[in-house]
Structures are given as structure tokens and as C-alpha cells.
Task: structure prediction
Amino acid sequence: MKNNHRFRRVATAALAASLLVGGLAACSGSSTTANAGAEGASAEDIAKALDTETTLTVWGWAPQLEPIVEAFEAKYPKVHVNLENVGTGNAHYTKLQNAVKAGSGAPDVAQIEYNALPQFALSDSLVNLKDFGAEELKDNYTQSTWGSVNLNDGVYALPQDSGPMAMFYRADVFEKHGISIPTTWDEYVEAGKKLHAADPKAYITSDTGDAGFTTSMIWQAGGKPYTLDGSTKVAVDLQDEGAKKWTGTWNQLLKDDLLSPVTSWSDEWYKGLSDGSIATLIIGAWMPANLESGAAGASGQWRVAPMPTYEKGAAATAENGGGGDAVLKQSKNKAAAYGFLQFANGPEGSKIHAANGGFPSTKADLESESFLNAESAYFGGQKINEVLVQASKDVVPGWSYLPFQTYANSIYSDTVGQAYGSKGDLNDGLKAWQDATAKYGQQQGFTVTTK
Amino acid sequence: MGWAFVGPFMAVFLLVFVAPVLYAFYLSLFQNQMVGGDKFVGGANYLQALGDPQFWDSVTRVAVFLVVQVPIMLFLALFAALALDSGRLRASSFFRISVFLPYAVPAVVATLMWGFIYGPRFGLFGSINDFFGLDLAEPLSSSWILASIGNINTWEFTGYNMLIFYSALKVIPAELYEAANLDGAGTFRVIRSIKLPSIRGAIGIASIFSVIGSFQLFNEPNILKALAPNSISSYFTPNMYAYNLSFAGQQFNYAAAISIIMGVLTVIVAYVVQLSGSRKDA
Result:
């Protein structure tokens, strides 16, 4: 009933808007208007909505949103955008979830990372953008990012950035100790041993346990721990072959104290990235801007190489972070909100995004000559985007996250984190994580199966 | 007529105390699921909590904390108060303010400060270990973390309790000391027979405050979690458990049940402490 009521309100608003500015939009008549769904709008409706005095509220923390909003307001002077930063990551999702639960107070548009998207999409908080014709945009985005927003036969966000993983490494450190750049995980473990033996203060990488990193590593290894069947059936299997492959490698590093026990994003971490005591990072392609600002002292020393693999020569990588923007069901002006998405996540917005240090998800930007050929002074003149764009093509397909991934990630340190803390077996940690995750899923009414 | 005087208090009391408790109790009788929505479940959340190993793990942890940290802190506070009261200290007002000062530092700032001191590589502990080539205890490791938090709390609240004791000592009539002096009682005899019995009430109050404070432990572990994520679980203390359940897990109803159980437990323990304190008076 509630939905019906809301539909009527939207319909009335749309009707009123079309009567007011009906004459103005006659020029954009080429697109199809027939397939506007229950909550959707045609291209004409969207154009009209963008030419009407409105205010949109956008929640997000990406630094690129600010210039994008400025450009949007310049192009559509009648639409005012309130850009609010209500927190980063989990803090943001908590506020968003609370507003959704409260039934009011949610923004029109929200930034949502790929791993949190199922939670909001499947709980019916987000507008299915197919109703606005988003399906047509499919070919503009990389296969892996489109796969991340395409859930249960709906499209729940438009991709903004992406984070195909690569190996960032300190050329100077490898050269100093005469270690060759690893291309497989076995070589990586060997390099870790050699490096730590040569300099007890140096580590191949830092890792104290991070849910996003773990799931990405399992992704690269070919694991598919989370499978969804419809919107209520979930299977959790953190003991599959991919997960075991990853723990097989990572247990060796953990057991032999080859991982720098420094928490990511701490001051100490940036110090390690600057002074060379952390020699590599396996991380998403959005990292260069962070390195430049956080580890300015290491300018000229970092390089990028493809992520090491389990089989020599068989390129494989995974997405790590990245996300897009979604329209909330609570929005009173969905057509204008979608119009904002079309701008921010379309060709115009993605250019601004890339120019401000973001790593795009749009094929046109990824393949543009100027992007590919850009030489980074920080990376000693290397054309880093050649490596990173190739990585975006090598992402292993078929991955999905849980519809309650943000909660699962919040209890990661209770389970897998314990294995890190005690230098135990990561497999046991993953088993504990799987069980705790499944228990929560069942409490939330899902049908959960585990192996 | 009497109601008119009590009225303003009652209105505020009902609004800010009784109403939230009742609302939490109401919430605790329901269950909200991502699949299935809201439903009435009666006492199911309470039954679940009573059989929840993570909940009891957190309760046990604060109980251990209480049994170890509270006596140490109160003993230190008592010692400092008696030292102040003895009149033998030079610069006693400087001593008093410097012991009290940590209480004026906000708990968040205090915890961050101690967190940096504890840090194994960047902190004071790390530097000391490095300088002497030692491998002393790591305060942020899972086996030491509770003691490290206890240390922060002791540092923060010793001065506060000292002031409670000291003000109680100040109101002891001077005649008692004169009489004791005439009877030839020494300093320690005076402490044992006059000072301690006279401030028993203050000790009781300080104990109850500390018991409640221990059960409500939240700020310190929640902030240190950022520095030591693998040592502090999401259910480290009952309050942290309730917080994470409701804000990370959207389980408001279950968190409400846990809060109510913790409230009842705290009242019981505080009452037992008060009883055992007042029995000595009889």
C-alpha cells in the first residue's frame, strides 16, 4: 500500500512538472518513452527534471565529488546539490542504513562501494536504475564494475571508480638487495624471505588483517565464497579451493614473520611506505594518488607491476574497493537524481574524476591515449596506467559479495584477525568467519548454507 | 501541594530516564530481519542473550577488570588522600592538583595519548625496547590489552576518587585527633581507628561508582581498537557488543535486550557492594 501511495505521489509530481515545462523539452524527442517502469522516468522526464528548480542531497566522501558537483551545477543551474560528507566507509553506511530504517532523512543520491551495494539493493532501499534506461549504459563500463552493480537482474548504481589490483613495489629496495621482481606467489614468498634476511627491518609487505584485502585475494585465486540465489538464499564457503590457495601462500608469510605488523592507513604505515621498510603493496589501482600524498618522500622509487599469480603467465587479478553512486527509494525527485548520476558517472563526470586522481571504470577513459600514455613522475616516469588498465581487463569474472557484507567485514577482526594476532592458521580464521557470518545471515532471515 | 515541588523533577525523570528504559524494553520484545521485517518475539531475545557465548565472554571480561582494577585504583586513591591529609607533604596543593589533573583530560584524548605511548614501533614502549635492546611486554597484544586499559582507567580516575576520600577526611572533627594524641596513639593507629572508619561511607560510594564505571567500559577499548584491531574484538565489553550489534549489525532489538540485562546485572552488583559495605556499620 505504501508503495502505491508513493507511486501516486511521484506520478502526480511528474505530471505537474511536465505541465509546467512541457513546451521546453520538445527538442529531445528522439528517445523512447514507452518503457518507463513503475518508479522510472524517460529521458524526457529526466531532462525536464533537470530544468526545474530542485535541490538534491548527495552523500559521499570521494574527494572527486566536489569538482563534479560544481561542474554539474554549472551545467544545470536550476538544480542545487547539497553535497554532504557524513563519514567514510562504514560510518557512512551506518548513517545511510539508519535513515533507510527510519523511513526519512536519506539523501537522494549516495556513494556506495561495490561490496556494500548488495546490502542496500537487496533490502529494497535503492531504485532499480533499469527503470530509467540504465541498461543502455552497460557497454560504457568495464565488465567487472558493471557486474558489481548488476544484481538480481537489476541495476542499482552507476559505477564511478574501480580498483583492479596490481603490485606496487619499491624498485630501489629490490635493486639494493639484488632481488628480482616476483611474478608468481611462490616467487613473492621467496622474495619476502630474502628481503627480511638481508634487512631485518624490511618486509615484503604489511598486513594485519583486512576484510577487503582478504576477499579480493580470494577473488584473484578463483574463489567464489559468496553465492546468491534469488534475494533470500545465500551460500557461504570460505573453504573453497580459491580460499585455500590464498591461505596456502599467506600462511607462509604470516608464520615466518614476513609481514610488517603495521596497520594500514596509520601514520606508521605511510612512514614504512616512505622509508622502504614496506617493499610492496598489493592494492587497488586507486593507490597512486594516496602514495603521492602520503609517501611524498619516496618520489621516484615506486613502480607498478601486474599482481603476482598462482600460475606463471596466467594473468589474473581482482577488484579491490571502488564503487559507484545510487539513487535512494526515499528520494522525492528520482528523475533529477538519476540525471545527476548520468552526469557524475557518465562521460563528463568520469573525466573530472580521472583528472582528480581517481581510477575510472569507464572504458572510454581507460582506453584514451592520453590516459594510457601519461608518465608519472612519482613513479619515475613509468606509464603506470598501461599496467593498471591491463589489470582492469584481467579481473576474474563471477564474483559477488554478501547482502550483509558490511556487517561481515565488521566481525572480521574477531575471527580472521585472531589468526593474524596469534600467527595461527588463516584457514581456521576463515572457517570461524564463515560460521559467524552464516549465523548472522540466519538471524536476518536468510537461508544460509555453508560447507 | 507536594506534587508541585516534585513535579519538575518527575517530569524530567520520566522523560529522560523512565521513557528510554521502557522504550528499550519495548524494542527488546521484537525482532527485525532484513528478510521478513518486524515481528513480535516476546522473550526470545533474552533467551538468546542468556545462551550467547559472546555476551558472557564480554561480561566475564569486565568482571575480571572490576575485581582487579577497582581495588588497585581505590587503594592508590586512599593512599594519596591519606598522604595529603597527613599534612606532612610539601607543596600539597600541587600534589593534589597533579593527581587530579588526569581526570580533567577527556577520556578520548587520554586513550589516544596512552595508545601512542603503548605503540610497539612508534610509541614510547617501542623506543624503550629499541634503546635497551629488550623485548618487553607489548601492551597492545591480546594478552596485555586488558591490563593496558586498566592502567589508563587507573590513571584517569585515581585523582577523582582521591578527592572524594580527601573531602571525607577533612570533615573528621579535630577533637578526635586530640583525644587520640592524648591517649598516645601513633599515626597508623589513628588511620586504622579513626580515619578509615569515618570515611567508610565515602569508600562505599567510590566503590559503587567504580563498579558501574567498569560495567560501562566502552571509550577506551573502542578507541584502542583502531590501533589494535586483532586484540580487541567487537564484543570486548558488553557495551561495545551492544553498540556493534545495533550500529554495525542493525540488530537494535537484540542490542536492547542486552542493554536491559546489563542494566539489571549492574544494579544487582552495585547493590551487593552497598550491602557488604553497610553491614560493617551495624
